[in-house]
Amino acid sequence: MSTTPFTVRPLDPFADAELLHSWVTHPKAAYWMMQDASLPDVEREYMAITAAEHHDAFIGEYEGRPAFLMERYDPAHVELVGLYDAQPGDVGMHFLVAPTDTPVHGFTRAVITAVMETLFADPATRRVVVEPDVRNTAVHRLNEAVGFEIAQKIAKPEKDAYLSFCTREQFEEATRTAGATL
Length: 182
Prior knowledge:
- By secondary structure, the chain is an alpha+beta fold.
- The protein is built from five helices and seven strands; from the N terminus they run βααβββαβαββα.
């Protein structure tokens, strides 16, 4: 169980829109591919996600303050349809840490650990699936640190990506080896 003070709540596409807009359009969020999005664009995107049957979004808080965005999706129905053979218990994930002028060493690693703990808290989750841009070396290092293994390079309409998987056992081993975070 995490010893970090993170909580996760469902995203409200209206109440959280301005906050999300500032995050997804920030230069550090280039791989989120919403750099030129307007506030109404962000509202529409997250209204669609929160209304979707196989996709949802959450705001992660650190010590009661919004700190990251987490999306969970069913890769058999969203994002990866036809790009790999989805297995029962597969859960897709995206996460974005809020930009800051005062970064804290190890914070992003603590966030991805909290995200993974949240996903694996559901006993039905057997494996987490991600598809980060092949150029996003920082997230590849983070993914590896929590147990992800790259399966293959895939071509998505918007990017070339590394399809990667992390089982519950891989995550537990990686976090046991790494010790406590934050």
